[in-house]
């Protein structure tokens, strides 16, 4: 049985795809793992359809979670249209739906070839975008995106646009081998785009 939704620390996490346009040096899925600290088996042999995912949600007491988080073993925004459909369906059925967050690499507009940020309004409460570095060179070295430096530009542009439609937009970096100056540079960059920086502690593989 594949894991579409799973619980972690009071939140409900959602796994809709393995696909990703990056190959981050630290990514569990790029390093041969099929699970994470959150759940054992996250590798999807097939991507669940939207109806299948909805049925999985509806087996749960959704109002009891502090948050619903679309993350994934891959990049969840490959499934942007399905995420938004699911949120609409859930909002119709659950009067007190918890806040909805997407953890993303910020490449949705690049991957999908259109600006999706307007569609997030009223549906997505929080975006957490991986920043991963304070310069394009560092970013490309760490995340190894299919589109090279264009992915850095796309991620920044996505953040700027999303900050106008989503109430809370965070950019995250992992605090590993970072100097205070680099963290300051990341914070300045995030704030210039209308986001705020969240520094996450490093969890060894
Ligand atoms: S963006 Fe996320 S899913 Fe994609 S390779 Fe990096 S860590 Fe893995």
From TrEMBL:
<keyword id="KW-0411">Iron-sulfur</keyword>
<keyword id="KW-0408">Iron</keyword>
<dbReference type="GO" id="GO:0046872">
    <property type="term" value="F:metal ion binding"/>
</dbReference>
<keyword id="KW-0479">Metal-binding</keyword>
<dbReference type="InterPro" id="IPR013785">
    <property type="entry name" value="Aldolase_TIM"/>
</dbReference>
<feature type="domain" description="Radical SAM core">
    <location>
        <begin position="14"/>
        <end position="184"/>
    </location>
</feature>
<dbReference type="GO" id="GO:0051536">
    <property type="term" value="F:iron-sulfur cluster binding"/>
</dbReference>
<dbReference type="GO" id="GO:0003824">
    <property type="term" value="F:catalytic activity"/>
</dbReference>
<protein>
    <submittedName>
        <fullName>Radical SAM protein</fullName>
    </submittedName>
</protein>
<dbReference type="InterPro" id="IPR023821">
    <property type="entry name" value="rSAM_TatD-assoc"/>
</dbReference>
<dbReference type="InterPro" id="IPR058240">
    <property type="entry name" value="rSAM_sf"/>
</dbReference>
<keyword id="KW-0949">S-adenosyl-L-methionine</keyword>
<dbReference type="InterPro" id="IPR007197">
    <property type="entry name" value="rSAM"/>
</dbReference>
<dbReference type="InterPro" id="IPR050377">
    <property type="entry name" value="Radical_SAM_PqqE_MftC-like"/>
</dbReference>
<dbReference type="Pfam" id="PF04055">
    <property type="entry name" value="Radical_SAM"/>
</dbReference>
């Amino acid at each position: 049985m594949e894991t579409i939704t799973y619980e972690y620390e009071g939140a409900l996490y959602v796994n809709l795809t393995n696909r990703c346009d990056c190959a981050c040096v630290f990514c569990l899925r790029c390093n041969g793992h099929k699970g994470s600290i959150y759940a054992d088996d996250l590798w999807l042999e097939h991507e669940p359809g939207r109806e299948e995912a909805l049925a999985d949600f509806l087996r749960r007491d959704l109002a009891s979670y502090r948050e619903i988080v679309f993350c994934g073993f891959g990049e969840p925004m490959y499934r942007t249209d399905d995420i938004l459909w699911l949120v609409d369906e859930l909002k119709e059925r659950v009067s007190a739906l918890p806040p909805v967050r997407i953890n993303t690499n910020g490449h949705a507009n690049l991957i999908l070839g259109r600006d999706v940020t307007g569609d997030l309004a009223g549906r997505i409460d929080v975006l957490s975008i991986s920043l991963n570095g304070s310069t394009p060179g560092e970013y490309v070295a760490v995340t190894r995106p299919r589109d090279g430096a264009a992915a850095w530009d796309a991620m920044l542009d996505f953040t700027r646009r999303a900050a106008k439609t989503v109430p809370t937009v965070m950019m995250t970096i992992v605090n590993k081998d970072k100097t205070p100056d680099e963290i300051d540079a990341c914070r300045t960059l995030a704030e210039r785009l209308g986001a705020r920086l969240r520094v996450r502690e490093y969890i060894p593989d």
